Amino acid sequence: MPAILIGSALVVVMWVMPGLTPTDAIPVIGQRDDHGRIVESLGADPTGLPRFVVEIFDGPDTGARVEAVVQDGSASMPGAASRDPYAVGDEVVVTSFTGPAGGAFTVITEPWRLPLIGIAAAMFAVAVVVVGGLRGLRSLVALALTLTVVVKVVVPLLLRGVDPILLAVGVAAGVTLATLLLTEGWSRVTLAAVLGTFAALALTAVLANAFTTAASFTALQGNEEIAFLIPLVGDRIDLSGILLAATIVGALGVIDDVTVTQAATVEQLHRAEPSADRAGVIARAMRVGRSHIAATVNTLVLAYLGAGLPLLLPFALGGQSPLIVLNGEIVAVEVISALVGSIGIVAALPLTTLVAAFVMVPARAPADVA
Known about the structure:
Elements: H1 2-16, E1 31-44, E2 50-56, E3 65-70, E4 91-97, E5 105-111, H2 114-159, H3 164-184, H4 188-214, H5 224-233, H6 239-272, H7 278-317, H8 322-327, H9 329-360, H10 366-369
Parallel strand pairs: 3-5
Antiparallel strand pairs: 1-2, 1-4, 2-3, 4-5
Helix pairs in contact: 1-2, 2-3, 3-4, 3-6, 4-6, 4-9, 6-7, 6-9, 7-9
């Protein structure tokens, strides 16, 4: 219980502390998104788009009523027209444009989805607590702390121009230590898992930097979000480094899983047979870990493949050679990220096993020592 209270207090403190975002961060000029509710239908505008009156719920215009047309992409994006039409009472997101080029106007861009997300999050939390008990509650606090660190520390420091690789490794190490202390408490298992995670993260960072540099990727690395950032941040942020940092953070969760499981395996093997020497425990722990690592690596590769699957369809439609598609920057970035992350996960297995064995198991069995 003290760990839960301490973790919760850290989350609250980080949310109420002054923001780290630089004061000279460049906003999206002439555009603001607000949450509102449709209160009246005005029919269609001269171009045939539905027109509504929306009451604003938050922001500087709270309580104001604005006229807005529906312009959420259904006219230009295939498949978007299948969305249900808006009606009075619907909560929506409205975007107000005030730039000098296009004049002042407001459009309805998308439905308000946070209540639905809240229901899914509540169901997830209940499931974790029911199945995991007190340890499940600890894991939820650790998850909240991780998300808070990303939003309140990582993103603002990236905007300040902090080196993304060093930031990712440092934050990942800190988050690993904090979350493992929350979920596992301080023990030799935690110590071995933390050390194994640190070593695997360092290896992942070195390999990600080496392979990305050798592959001669552009600053965009086939990423549309990066293209959107370039006119906003210029050259004060290492955009290529951000994608490398994403590779490190993406592998962190799986590495944590491997290191904790492997350290606990070593502990249990030693408890089951205290007379076993270190070499014997390491051999048995590695046999268990090999079964775990096969499924874990497949999980990470499938996660990256699933994220990039839509990108493969245009290439297939164009009839391009699979080797040409694989060589392309858009696909190659995802492949290298998946492979480098998987190398870090595989390395975490023997690294953690060795550390855990040295921490928990004597070099020779007690009978040999006698």
